[in-house]
Write a structure and sequence with these properties.
The protein contains 17 helices and eleven strands. By secondary structure, the protein is of the alpha/beta class. The strands form two sheets. It has a six-stranded mixed sheet with strand order 7-6-8-9-10-11, sandwiched between helices. A five-stranded parallel sheet has the order 2-3-4-1-5, sandwiched between helices. Strand 9 (334-342) and strand 10 form a beta hairpin. Helix 3 (63-78) packs parallel to helix 4.
């Protein structure tokens, strides 16, 4: 992974080398390569820089940001540097980080100091909260999403089937030959820190056990509809539908798991619908539902579900960046897997793989809603590999 260059490299490097305008914020879920990307950029620029990490700092130490910022200023002065770059990793772990950053950035503005800043955060929820509350107008956001098929293929030699099953986490990519070990890594090194540190510690989670159980069940049901009432029936910890819906929304903001709403003509009907669960990375489906790669690949019905979830993950990861909403549609036994809505564009997508049968959902949806585009991905349509390597922006 260390030698692979993601597309965001050019974006971040270009903005750092521009005249100082905004704080650059690199945000994304855990273990998608934020720190690796920054280190690659630092090696590729000539600007003197300071790299700090807030990981081991006490969350209540509000003075820490001021201290590292002041150290960068002193270095600039002593070294007579015309410009300097300060990079702070894992900044979301500090209380009131955004207010501290705002104060230091504004001071440099007043004093005309050419101190550029990049901050990194693995909790998209807390990063977004801090940016909206304190740093409005002072930053540009660079989103680092889960890895696409083309990236896993080029960096690790993944086949299409391996990507569909094992998803897009680069860290455990070399472990897939030992599936038991790979699953333990996903659960212990990825899921546990994401839930315990990025979700529970940064949001008002009154029932952490309920949150964890809901996450695991939601991952196992990726690509399927499951009412929150039925979901509660599977949970050991008591809860209510409103609490559960709030937890799923938080998991979605952290790019882990979402509940797609049914496409309908009015907003009220959309938000009262039964959610269709969708992971942001198919590794999460496999970790909680998979048997073995060989067994699930040979099971046509199971593989159809994995393929649909992989398409859904590909679509949901890019929704915020490209500015579209993702839904599903169902009327009795007629269903369309994914509905993309962007401005005045509506796109209907049906996924067909293995022995999964086509239903009459797509023709019925076309007749009822007259979408801008509609097509099949998989058997009888656009090959899954072609769709996963295509630029979604081109069809919007």
């Amino acid at each position: 992974m260390a030698g692979y260059i993601r597309s965001q490299y050019k974006v971040l490097k270009g903005r750092i080398e521009e005249p100082r305008r905004f704080i650059q914020v690199l945000a994304g879920p855990r273990q998608v390569g934020k720190s690796t990307l920054v280190n690659q950029v630092l090696k590729g620029i000539r600007i003197p820089h300071t790299l700090e990490n807030a990981d081991g700092v006490d969350a209540s130490d509000t003075q820490w940001i001021h201290n590292v910022w002041q150290s960068a200023r002193v270095r600039m002065q002593l070294q007579k540097e015309e410009e300097h770059l300060l990079v702070i990793d894992e900044i979301q772990k500090l209380d009131n980080w955004s207010e501290a950053v705002k104060a230091e950035w504004d001071r440099d503005n007043r004093e005309g100091r050419n101190l550029k800043v990049v901050i990194l955060g693995s909790s998209r929820l807390l990063i977004k909260k801090g940016l909206s509350e304190s740093l409005a107008g002072r930053y540009e956001l660079i989103r680092l999403t889960h890895w696409k098929y083309s990236e896993m293929r080029d960096a690790f030699g993944y086949t299409l089937d391996q990507y569909v099953y094992f998803g897009g986490y680069p860290g455990p990519a070399t472990l897939i030959a030992d599936e038991r070990r790979w699953k333990r890594y996903i659960k212990d090194a990825l899921v546990a820190p994401s839930i315990e540190k990025d979700v529970i510690m940064t949001a008002n989670i009154y029932k952490p056990a309920l949150m964890k159980q809901a996450f695991e069940i939601g991952c196992a049901y990726s690509g399927e509809l499951l009412s929150l009432t039925k979901m509660i029936g599977q949970l050991q910890d008591a809860g209510n539908v409103t609490t559960l819906a709030g937890y799923i929304d938080i998991l979605s903001q952290c790019a882990l798991l979402t509940g797609l709403q049914k496409y309908a003509g009015d907003e009220a009907r959309r938000y009262s619908s039964v959610p269709k669960f969708q992971v942001y990375n198919n590794a999460l489906l496999t970790a909680y539902k998979g048997r073995t790669f060989e067994k699930d690949r040979l099971d046509g019905e199971a593989w159809g579900r994995w393929a649909e979830s992989a398409i859904g993950a590909h679509l949901i990861c890019q929704a915020e960046e490209l500015g579209y909403k993702l839904y599903y549609w169902r009327e009795r036994s007629n269903e369309v897997d994914f509905i993309i809505v962007s401005d005045h564009t509506t796109i209907a997508i049906e996924v067909k793989s293995g022995r999964r049968r086509m239903n009459s959902g797509l023709p019925l949806f076309e007749k009822t809603f007259r979408p801008t585009h509609s097509f099949v991905v998989g058997t009888g349509g656009i090959p899954i590999e072609d769709f996963l390597t295509a630029d979604i922006e081109e069809i919007l």
